[in-house]
């Protein structure tokens, strides 16, 4: 008897749970944005009759808004429901106006916390309802359809299906295989400039929709030329520091790069890959994402680090900002040789070459006059050393103020990618009590990899891109040319390039694989992106050609990489390891504060450091950017290849 009662109780509970999860057509308070457009009188109205047209079951009536963009219509369900299906039908003859329309669910009446449930990828049937299953475990009280830009939300009918439930964040829909970044500003304000931060909420959905991060944020426009594109770039400032999508830095500041003129949507990421392979101390982290802003699908973007002084970003010492009487002045600093510097708040023009330099750190509202005066003076000291008569001197020439390792690595990334803008905007930083400027991080490759009509076809150029057709901030080009007039710098460049060609990090095959991997990753998203931004058949920004398809654009970059590696090999007299002559390498070194920096030696060799008593202080395999801690004094550097000493140099450690 007890068993039967227990069975009946469990059966009753199961039946009630089943009933509670039975998907039904949902009803509620009809809600919408703005005024509605009455096509019978061609006037705007707030008539409930027009609002009801979206829910009256008739495919001949129409709901539309007076606002051309941002118009929406939906239901207040009174309590949360798990949405299982949506159905929709466009206004007769206007099916195209629903393409990229978005269904959203929210629990705030202003839809500030809304999540996209479904994006309409293609024109729907205009003579019947189209139904779409929704796989979402979270319950929403407010649900709506928001029309794409310029569509006036033209719909004939929408329906929502589901069952009561608060649900959870176990499964949240994504639009493609890429992570989704969803932003809603307060009162759906549009982002119209690069100065004014708007408050809002951001949600980042990842891992097949099983991971969601939500936070308050401030957001504004960013960029120079890119801000003028129809597809806008943005800068986000989170309320709480976070490592978004597993990227290394845990910070508040992030960027959304629009990649409008880059039809592969990957040129920055490809260049960043080259930078990382070349062991540049810091390479910006980035990943492709789908972006929604105030319910509107914006396209494929690149979520990326903000270039700033921070852990896992540009790592230099942060200076005190409160000590006005005796502030720290020797570092660290983050600078940008910047053609747009005169539009920034804190910048200077160098005395000799009139190079415009933006001071990125300390920040505009933190830097004091003594710090600005110091870094300007120190930059000019470096500039003077480059053009001095003894500029090639290893101890007192320009090497005293320029870290050649990072300079040459940054140069190679720019030339391998064929980036016209390498010296239009060039980041560099200075550490505390260190006289040197270090170059990096690399940035801005949207017109690289054969995407600039001014250099097309790039491999027909007789010399380096920077020296022939490259854009440069005033005075920078002559400084770069002066450095390369030192024959030892050219030798060091050749050895550095050969090192990375020999170890496979700059191989044609590895770079082509990176392109293929990104193309596969972006493929779903790019289809929607170029539905939104129909430019594959148009030359936009600096495009030298319009190839018509995403696949053709990707293949163009692959062809460019293959040809560019051959061009670089020829320019730098490279032949594969085994036929190159590295028997007598040229050793370059510098020292300060008991740290010896050694470069110019390929990684197949060993280095030995011996003091004047004959004691071996170090004996180890060469690594990129090799450094040694030593007391001040004189030492002998020996380079060994296959247990044979092939070079000996005396060095002085300060």
Structure overview:
The chain has 10 helices and 29 strands. The strands form 6 sheets. Strands 1, 2, 5, 6, 7, 8, 9 and 10 form an 8-stranded antiparallel sheet that branches. A 7-stranded mixed β-barrel has the order 11-12-13-14-15-17-16. The chain has a 5-stranded antiparallel sheet with strand order 19-20-18-21-22. The longest helix is centred in the last third of the chain and has 25 residues, at 508-532. A hairpin with a 4-residue loop joins strand 12 and strand 13 (211-221). With 654 residues, the chain is of the alpha+beta class.
Quickly describe the structure:
By secondary structure, the chain is an alpha+beta fold.
What percentage of the residues does DSSP assign to strands (E)?
Answer: 25-35%
Number of strand segments? 29
Structural shape? elongated
Low-confidence stretches: 11-19, 579-584
What's the rounded overall pLDDT mean? 91
| Main pleated sheet | 8 strands, antiparallel
Helical stretch count? 10
Helical content band: 10-25%
Count of domain modules: 4
Structural class: alpha+beta
- Rg measurement, Å: 30 Å
Distance between the termini: 94 Å
